[in-house]
Specification:
By secondary structure, this protein is α+β, with helices and mostly antiparallel strands. The protein has helices at about 5-15, 30-35, 75-90, 100-105, 110-115, 125-130, 140-145, 155-160; strands at about 15-20, 25-30, 45-50. It has two domains: about 5-50, no CATH class; about 75-160, no CATH class. It has eight helices and three strands. β1 (about 15-20) and β2 (about 25-30) form a beta hairpin. It is elongated, with a radius of gyration of 28 Å.
Length: about 160
């Protein structure tokens, strides 16, 4: 049987394939298997097959959202969370030095020192990041690349591109 014939047979047998979040539902006409050329009463059969969609490789899902919809950035949130956690570990004695945190976290020398000032972000900036309302250009990469973050909250808002209140 040539390839085209096999496709023709498959399409005459398969009545419908429905996709659901967790399964595929395949509806067949079994009468087409027994007598493919004969006109007869269909014999329906339905099979449910467990299914889980998996991301392949580095592909990212396409998300369609309104322009003003919040865009959570897990890397940015984790960066600010790490800074706050590390800043609390030092005075509480859970870490004795920045070097100890650097070694424990397996980071390059100087990484913790550059990230640590993010613990003192303006509260409205931290809240906006947690809610996904940061300016589109503000990412973990851009925050890491800042030469220095001022302690003045109004200056932070200006530098990071937040609307002045």
């Amino acid at each position: 049987m040539v390839w085209e014939d096999q496709i023709g047979t498959a399409t005459s047998i398969i009545d419908r394939i429905a996709t659901h979040k967790d399964r595929l539902v395949v509806s067949l006409n079994l009468a087409a298997i027994t007598e493919p050329e004969a006109a007869h009463t269909p014999i329906p059969a339905t099979f449910e097959i467990p299914f889980q969609k998996r991301q392949n490789g580095c592909a990212k899902p396409i998300i369609i959202a309104a322009d003003n919809a919040p865009q959570l950035d897990p890397d940015l949130i984790a960066l600010v969370a790490d800074a706050r956690r590390w800043a609390s570990e030092l005075p509480e004695g859970r870490a004795s030095s920045i070097q100890q945190i650097t070694e424990r976290e397996g980071l390059r020398s100087g990484s913790v020192s550059r990230i640590l000032p993010l613990a003192w972000l303006a509260s409205d900036i931290s809240t906006a990041i947690l809610e996904g309302r940061q300016p589109p250009h503000l990412t973990a990469k851009t925050l890491r690349a800042l030469p220095e973050l001022p302690l003045d909250w109004a200056e932070q808002q200006r530098i990071l591109g937040f609307a002045q209140s």
